[in-house]
Amino acid sequence: MTHDLALHPGMTVGTVAELHPATLPVFTRHGIDLCCGSRRSLEFVALAHGLDLAGLLTELEAARAG
Amino acid sequence: MVFWPVMTTPAVPMARPLTPALPAAGRSLPITGQVIPSFPLVGSHFALGFGWALAGAVGLVWLAPQLATGSFLDPRVLALTHLCTLGFLTTVITGVLYQVFPAMLGIGERSRPVAWAALGLHALGTALLAGGLLLGQRYLQSAGWSVLFVAVFGTAWNLLPQRRRAPRNRQLGLYVSYAHIGFGCAMLVAGVRIGDALGWWTTPRLGLISAHLHLGLAGFVTMTAFGLGSRMIPMFYGSPTPIPARLDTWMPRLLGTAVLVYATGAVLGAAPLAWAGTTLMATAGALFCWLGLGWFRTRARRALDPATGLLTLALASLAAAIPLGLTAAALGPRRPGVLVAYVLALLLGWAGALVLGVSFRVLPTLTWHHRFATRMGRPGTPAMPAMLHRGLGITAAVAGALGLLVLVPGVAAGSAPAARAGAALFTLAITATILHHLRMLLIGRARPAASGTLP
Fold first, then answer.
1. Residue B303 per-residue DSSP state
2. Could you say which of B103, B301, B454 has the minimum Cβ distance to residue A47?
3. Which of A66, B135, B168, B258 has the fewest beta carbons closer than 10 A?
4. Share of chain B above pLDDT 70, in %
5. Which chain B residues are closer than 8 Å to A18 by Cβ?
């Protein structure tokens, strides 16, 4: 199976962290748990945590670009 | 480099629209992945475990003077120890395993009814055994041991064979398998002790008790904690440094060998063998502390939250338990206070704080998903951060740290007032944790929260 490397709202938290390890601190900063909610999509966790999805994606992209 | 092998997610939708397609209110969002952990099962383990923890904490305050005098063979102290180990630690650890197997190994338990039955039997067995120890009723102890044997066998049957079928992260499963071998050996030794008490045979009491303690606390609890901790602690710290693959391979072998060598030496009364095992156990502990220091230094958020604070306390307690254990081994029963202080640092400091810390990170997420995932988008649905109560969390972490700082040196120095004060503080930590978790069940029930709600 191949993964699309670009970040998009449908990607799960676990997949993002696995493909782009540099994004881990972003999840930690927002209290997004990789143990129990890693199978949820970015759009789901953004809504669940009351975060702006576009802002979260920007932060993740910035961390990924390093 | 594969960074988070535990996080592999099998199915990723590729052609999702970029505009967030939010679910209709009240509709469940699908979870990508094949096996969903059972929240009632995991939550019930935590609830029962924390019930035992509260009973143990009250017992700790009650028996603090006995602990300060080093009376570790006092039946009440033995009952208290089993409330903490079998009741609190083992029940919560088993609950975590029922969450972790589906979430990290990608495979669930073989049978959910067996999991429920094992939970019930484990609680019954713990009550019978602790009651038997407290009342000096040997047949009650035997009954408790038998029921516990069935419960532990049930859990092992339910989880351990799944490792071979797991699509990922089998190394974590290996830690769990080794840990259950340690648990089985601890139960075997306990059975031999009970047989001695019933007059069936004669055995060296202190050697067997020491072997039993280390098979349980190091062989089972610490082995599981090393496996889970080497994944969870860096994840919770947000550290980019995972456990090195080679060390991950050798750690369970090192600790497993250490515990078996020590236990054999203790049972046979062979001092060189016991010392070899002690040295190996200390080496494994020191290696894990070194890893923990690396995770702590590279953490993403400098400020500690209740979960990472308690995890740091756990690592510090493990570091403190190593010299205490070596000192206790050198002094032997001549200084029982040091021996008891070592066990407290390992049991309450290392394992207890670790379990509390994990609960502060895992339970809010699980509870929110269980209670609110299907209500997302409805007015009044709290956001996930609203599950955390900062005051209670900080109280738990600070009281836990202060309690251990007073309790362990107090017991080592033989001071009953210090031991009681430390025990009271640790009880406060347990109480704050329980209140925090109970609060999560009440959020959003009566009326919509005034703040922290989703749009």
1. S
2. B454
3. A66
4. 90
5. 2-5, 7-9
Dihedral sign of CA atoms B175, B176, B181, B184 in order: positive
Type of residue found at B270: A
Cβ contact, residue pair B240, A22, below 8 Å: yes
Which residues of A fall within a CB distance of 8 Å from B385?
Answer: 31, 49-50
Residue A55 lies in a domain: yes
pTM to 2 decimal places? 0.87
Assess whether pLDDT exceeds 50 at residue A58. yes
Q: Is domain B35-442 given the CATH code 1.20.210.10 in the classification?
A: yes
Residue B132: the pLDDT is: 95
**Is A2 inside a domain boundary?**
no
Q: How confident is the model at residue B4 (pLDDT cuts 50, 70, 90)?
A: very low
- Taking all residues of chain B, what is their mean pLDDT, rounded to a whole number? 88
Q: How far is A65 from chain B (nearest CA, A)?
A: 16
- The residue in chain B having the minimum alpha-carbon distance to the alpha carbon of residue A34 is B235
Rounded Cα–Cα distance for residues B41 and B92 (Å): 11
* Other CB atoms within 10 A of residue B114 CB: 15
The domain of A51 spans: 19-32+42-65
- Contacts across the A-B interface (CB distance below 8 Å): 133
Does ipTM come in above 0.85? no
Say whether A47 and B4 touch across the interface (CB within 8 A): no
What is the rounded distance in angstroms from the CA atom of residue B308 to the CA atom of residue B306?
6
B-chain residues near A38 (CB < 8 A): 7, 9, 103
- Listed by start position, the domains of chain B span 35-442
In a domain, A51, yes or no: yes
Give the residue from chain A lying closest to B37, CA to CA.
A36
Residue of A22, A29, A38 with shortest CB distance to B9: A38
CB within 8 Å of B179: residues ≥ 6 apart: B219, B220, B221, B223, B224, B227
Per-residue three-class SS string for chain A: CCCCCCCCCCCEHHHHHHHCHHHHHHHHHCCCCCCCCCCCEHHHHHHHCCCCHHHHHHHHHHHHHC
Check if A47 contacts B (Cβ < 8 Å).
yes
Tell me what pLDDT residue B27 has: 33
pLDDT digits (tens, 9 = 90+) for A38-49: 778 898 888 888
> Structural domain tally of chain A?
1
Which residues of chain A are within 8 Å of residue B9 when distances are taken between CB atoms? 12, 14-15, 18, 38-39
Contact B384 A49 (CB under 8 A): yes
Tell whether the torsion through CA atoms of B141, B144, B150 and B151 is positive or negative.
negative
Chain B residues whose beta carbon lies within 8 Å of the beta carbon of residue A33? 361-362, 365
Is A10 a domain residue?
no
